[in-house]
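User: structure tokens for CoA transferase, please.
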Amino acid sequence: MSEPAPRVVELSSPFARFAGRLLVGLGHEVVLVEPPEGDETRREQGGDAFVHWHAGKRSVTVDLAAPDGTAQLRRLLRGADILLDGTEHGAEAAAEGLDQLVHVRVTPFGLVGPRSDWQGTDLVVAALGGMLAQVGEPDGPPLRLPENQAEQLAGVNAAIAALLGLRARRRGPGQLIDVSAQACVAAALEAGALAYLHEDRVPPRPGSVHPLVPHGLFRAADGHLGGGLGGSPRMWDALLDWLREEKADADLAEPRWQDPVERKKHQEHVFKVVQDFVGTRPKAEFARQAQARKLPWAAVDLPHELPDNPQLAARDFFTRVSTPEGERTDLGFPFAFPEGRRRTELVAPGPGDDQGLLDDPPRAARTAPAPDEPVRPALDGVRVLDLTWVLAGPYCTKILADHGAEVIKVESAGRPDPTRFAPFMHLSRGPHTDPNTNGYFNEVNRNKQSLALDTRTEEGVAVLRNLIAHCDVIVENFSSTVLTKLGLGYESLRTINPDIVYVSMSGMGHTGPRNGWVSYADTVSASSGLTGLTGWGPDDVVGVIYGHGDIVAGLQAALATIAALEHRAVMGRGQHIDLSQLEAIAAHMGTSLLRGTEVGPAGNTHPEWSPQGVYRSLGADRWLAVSVRDDTEWTALCEVIGRPELATDERTRTAEARRRESALVDGALGTWARTMSADAAAELLQACGVPAGAVQDGRELVEHDPQLRARGFYVRKEHTVAGAFLHEGVPITLTRTPGGVREPAPVLGADTDAVLRDVAGLSPERIQQLRADGVLK
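Assistant: Done. Predicted tokens:
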């Protein structure tokens, strides 16, 4: 008999609500606890915020400040599996003694540390977490990613935390899990801090050009395109052939441009030639023609254009939400689950629609077994075959490895991972030629083993099949046909290992009319609506240049993997998670589709709060992020900046008035901020309860942030070739079964013999023969 769906009790907040939504998508029963006046999202954006974040949940109303409020909540929790707790002070009193409960606390800065009581908004956490420093023009102010990406990073990490807690509970009791939104952002910067850690370098904001790979944002005849020169000689040759055919190659046919180092050195010139070619063509037409040549380009679409995307439509991505006002179309979930079934119909509950849950006898709580000794990480005992490369896939398997999974990375010099071998992606203080010293690779592949195997050979595939039989999970982020061509499609995998969990992470997914499109993080972000909303206005789009889309896909794939392992524990069978990176990032676009054509780039502003922005502070390229959420905070801010009269001035007394008088408001706040260090200004404002924080870059995160230091976020490990260096830590702290950075990344092929001997069961003689035949390299 299968277990009932896990019950989640959600005490919501902006940093927790996405976790609840994701758990709805996984089939969990999520009970939203609302105050008597209803959750605040019912009044945000005309109710669209509630429709997006809370459709599919059940609703009870509880006055937690009332004498019997805690007792009511405790009755609900007695039969719950997960408490998703976004409250400022926590619900420990209601949860005390409920040993079966996985209590996930999601806060802006975590439960411990000198800033644990600081106020945080999406903008402020993005600033203090390092995200803002990576977006915008180098000579302009930092720019916020749209649709609350810092909040959403916290949300998906909280969902992962909840499932890790359930997994650990199979061997012991529940536990408290501490999720810091700031740490979630700091762990999701691609090379933002790594450049400092491995090259003593702080990259400037990149504008519209990627700092490592030859990609960027280009203007088309009717909008914008994401794309560039690609990441392989084939792509450069194909682009050059196209330019030649159209007589638009200028001097790029000269032999010097065959050298990728030369192209990178003079990238501005190369991009100008490409821009001249791109700029005369409509964006959608150019993208289709480029993809026909297997070139990674995509039109920059806005959220209201997403329903016209044939790939999303064919894969039934969108949800239909029933509301009292009628049916609405909203963004869907990041992957279909379980077993390829996607939730596409939801109901937005009314306040207290499920009030009877408070009076029902509590469900029989699952009895937690006695804890093991010694305590093991949540994914201990899970073996993962890692066929991923670059960022999205390795980021997924990094999360699994951090929490105890045995991850075997299959790689070879014959099919090199660019993050090991490509000079332009190599981050190290030494020569950019040693595949074992790249800080980029070594960050996302810590805690893993390396098997050097040439899968282009028949013998290599045979070894791979042998390994598959002994693994729980396979993760790959190749294009949709690569494994099928090797004879390792899902049906073949099931024949080898009926219980296998197979997670594919192609850009577009394995089905649909665009399943063969070539994609990078920037092209996926372009197609999802994220790039089109990142800017100061419709005519001033900056775009998302670093690998945020890859990181989101990696997080969602990790969530999918753990969910599939839990499903297998209950149902006794594995499944194929066909994750589309496009769908993963589109699912992070918040309420943008519900709000329709009114949505456009809005810089650092907030649709309801005022002021909210980033203000220049004392020092070179130093900035202060501030959010004022209500009139009380505005009054406090006016006192701090020495302008108390503005709190009662009719021109600035309300948020609506302050938006109208933005020049006056921003001028007063900006004049004050310019005379102070950003850290000192933030401390003064936070002392009065106003959310504020310095915009921190990689150096400041590593060297100066007191909160990350107190939490032990950066972890030093000694690599056998690269030496000792700091690693970005784990943003999820499980108090009973913690994960962590246990080992540095492996040297290429370091574990080949051990894996083939201990996992595949090959004899020393067989291993020696494979090496002699060139299969192991």
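User: Anything notable?

Assistant: The chain has 32 helices and 26 strands.
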